[in-house]
Amino acid sequence: MHYNFDEIIDRKGTNSVSFEGWKGYMFGNNGDKPFPFKEEEYIRMWVADMDFATPPEILDAIRARLDRQILGYTLIFDPAYFDTLKQWFLKRYQWTINTDHIVTAPGVVPALNRLVNLLTGAGESILINTPSYTPFKVAGDINNRTVYYSSLMRVDNAYELNFEDIRQQLDDPEKNIKVFIFCNPHNPTGRVWTETELRKIGAICQERNIWLISDEIHCDLLRKGIRHTPLAKLFPDNERIITCTAPSKTFNLAGNLMSHIFIPDEQVRKQWQVLYFDLLSPLSVAAVQAAYAHCEDWLEQLKAYLDGNFAYLSEQLNTYLPECNFNIPDATYLAWIDFSAYIPHIPYSNISEFFATEAGVLLEGGNMFVDNGDGYIRLNLACPKSLLTEGFKRIIHAIQQHIS
What is the pLDDT of residue 314? Predict the structure, then answer.
């Protein structure tokens, strides 16, 4: 079956965060200020969901579940659900999962908030790499835990982990770090860490008895020729590695509110089940099972389409904004672009506000990614090529207008 990723879908009136929620999220109290574009005129390339239709196989499964007429209290009792998960991870990552380790959560972000509370006590801290997906820091903040940063290093225009800095911070008794929230593939840079890097980071944490939470939500969205290795696969006997996965990014199911969290430690898993027992939406269960059972072909076509969008973006940057530094990421549908050469020409302190006001393009500036992101923008390329073309044409024009 051929899937149409060129379709323009109207999201107005659907309570979409992407469409209706951007002002408050991106600009806080300044979101009430007037902007010169009408809502329908904006190109939205910011929050990490897709402008593509959710796979039809999933929508059909939801309709079929509705036809059963009763939406009562629901948990997962059918072993076929977990068999589907087993087959997915085994086929794509050669990882034999233990489904007894799985707990569900309404998303990876709520799971992180819960895990920090479970794994740390008062006076204990967490470590993250920066730039960072902001909820990693928020998970510490809302639990009153200090969050320390280990900056990723730029080496030959690519990002690398600073292992020496990570060791030093974990060994510092005053910091008292007990949890390292790790991201693989990394958001926002798109790096897929190599097996050598993963073995090194896993060993560093194992030697120090550090809890390692590996957020692998972007693992299915790989560029052609790139392979993802689940961190837990390399340390099958380490019960202090917790893996966070979800179908939300892969199949545009963010609003489905379903993620799978692998917690090998029985005591922690039991504490989770006592504190965070979640009944499930019957529609979510049907959607997730259909996604992993029937949507692999959709995913492969999606990845090819995204590869084309990234190739287009790279060509446009090289041609019209050649002073930008950009590498096509190993994974994700998010482009992390170094715009620092053009920042002096922008008469705004907030790069997101500049593009919203002068280009009618909504994107996230590097300042929104905790630290170590100044001068960057993150651009969501999970959109029809026509929207990407128009959006980037506006970005180029807005920059060129201010270059003397």
Answer: 98
